[in-house]
Amino acid sequence: MSKHVVVIGAVALGPKAACRFKRLEPDAKVTMIDQSPRISYGGCGIPYFVSGEVNNIDALQATPYNVVRDPEFFRINKDVDVLTETRAVSIDRAARTVLVEHLRTGEQQTLSYDKLVLALGSRANRPPVEGLDLAGVTAATNLEEAEFIRNSVAAGTVSNAVIVGGGFIGLEMAVALADMWGIGVTVVELTDRLMPGFLSSTLTRMVRHDLEKNGVTVLTGEKVVRLEGEDGAVARVVTDKRTIDAELVIMAAGVSPNTAIAKAAGLDTDPRGALIVNDRMQTSDPDIYSGGDCVTIPNLITGKPGFFPLGSMANRQGRVVGTNLAGGNATFPGAVGSWVVKLFEISACGAGLTIETALREGFDAINVHVEQFDRAHFYPEKTIMSLELVVEKSTRRVLGIQGVSTLGDALTARINAVATLLADKPTIEDISNAEIVYSPPFASAMDILNVAGNVAENILEGRCAVIDPEEFERLWNERASNDTVCFIDTRLIGNSQPLAEKYPGQWNAIPEEEIHDRIAEIPTDRTVVLVCNTGLRAYESQLMLTKLGVTNTVNVQGGMVAMHKIGADI
Question: For residue 184, which of 234, 150, 218, 208 has the smallest C-alpha distance?
């Protein structure tokens, strides 16, 4: 008798597992069920459908050959039975059955299984505030919600939108609405910064500056307390600090594992509610597999349980599940947490830990910030990329990498190069000596990634004392009341003189080439803050001063380029 596999959930992991299994055991039977009318779609493409970059929503559900992955596609092309608009009510593990309900008719049916796959996904968090049921309030997690959002703005009924949450989905939706449709967009984030836990404070400032200079209002450290409506539709968002007009509110305050049916069946979950699986993606019941947004897997940096609700992760895990359903022994050891988000003029990308999360996890770590051209400096098409490495001091282990750039492809190439190494505990020497393909249109002979490793080494070896751009901004803003700091611009006079003339006696222009001859002008009784365009000339000036016996210096990481990117008023 052929094996019967039942798959609950048909968006990412479910279809991947079902199709992989059928390729390996073509005579087996697979039944896949999902509550939604549409299945097997790229949910991460929703913001680009809303923006109009993806014109037809069917494209999110189509194969590379433009065939829509509907139930008929799975029946004919994959020999997989699909029940849409069907809800899994309960799981009887002893009897190996799943009770399902057809939502249109209310009819219930019992499906028996030999193996069960729980591709339950996640659900959008709903903060406990009044007014969530008003018309015009939605998440952006499925195709139906995506169509609602786009139809609303296309109809011209939305002048102002509020995004609740400053994570990936929230920011992508903010860009989609403001860039394509030109409506007023406000992002409200409860914590003190956008993308909390994914970027350093400095890089977060760059993201915020990109949004704000393109017309998006960003409110951080602010709590939504209620939504107010008129005639049953949302009209205002009330925070603990203000009232904001809004005809559309998108709830993007994170997601939680959608595991109620699994917990009711007695499967083991973590405190978040995510299913606990082994490296073969088996739950606490070896006949039930799971993956994607509803499971916890090891964080390969910390060694602790992690939660990684990403479509790419679900697809890779789906292949592992499908292999093991067919008697294989595939494993999925965990993840380092790689991500990327496209904004207006910049993209942000990262993998592993930020400096804040590293310190919170107990690592004695430093953060290294580098600004450098992503291609040869003499090549006409180039941009200055921002890149940060997080490094454990004692072991020199690289714990994470994040960056920001106007050229997202160039940025992701650098992040991906390190992301694949992080699980193997690379050191800064591995980054300094990483082999990066070189040709002037693609990279520098000493790539920015290699430079980041070199800078980390210089800091750890004590050759370079640094401060980050935000610390420099603070010191500069306090200059009138702080006589313990001296600011020296080491750039060429053409760059430094305008600021020296604007701030006489405060901004001192001493180019690197003149330091030796003007050493008498550099104080030894105050902290000397050295700044240049990107940090390189300031570092070389620091070395020269050290050789001359002046050791009371700090170098501003990223220099004036970083200050411009965070929107500092200098």
Answer: 218
User: What kind of architecture, by CATH, is found in domain 346-460?
Assistant: 3-Layer(bba) Sandwich (3.50)
Number of other residues whose CB lies within 10 A of the CB of residue 11: 25
Q: 310-324 pLDDT, tens per residue?
A: 889 999 999 999 999
Residue 546 Cα distances to 276, 461, 515, 522, angstroms: 55, 14, 11, 12
Is 541 a residue whose pLDDT tops 90? Answer: yes
Give residue limits of the domains in the chain: 4-121+256-292+303-325, 137-253, 346-460, 466-565
Single-letter code of the amino acid located at 63? T
Give me 233's structure tokens. 């539709």
Domains 137-253 and 346-460 share a fold: yes
Tokens at 248, concatenated: 């559309």
Torsion of CA 303, 307, 310, 311, to 10 degrees: 100
Average pLDDT, the chain: 96
> Helices H, strands E: what count in the chain?
16, 31
Q: Fold for 4-121+256-292+303-325, please state it.
A: FAD/NAD(P)-binding domain (3.50.50)
For CA atoms 185, 191, 192, 194, the dihedral sign is negative
Q: Please give, one letter per residue, the 3-state secondary structure of 20-32.
A: HHHHHCCCCEEEE
What helix, strand, coil percent values describe the chain, rounded to 5? 30, 25, 40
pLDDT digits (tens, 9 = 90+) for 460-499: 999 999 999 999 999 999 998 988 999 999 999 999 999 9
What's the predicted TM-score (pTM) here? 0.94
First to last CA, the chain: 75
C-alpha distances (whole Å) from 289 to each of 174, 306, 319 are 36, 18, 12
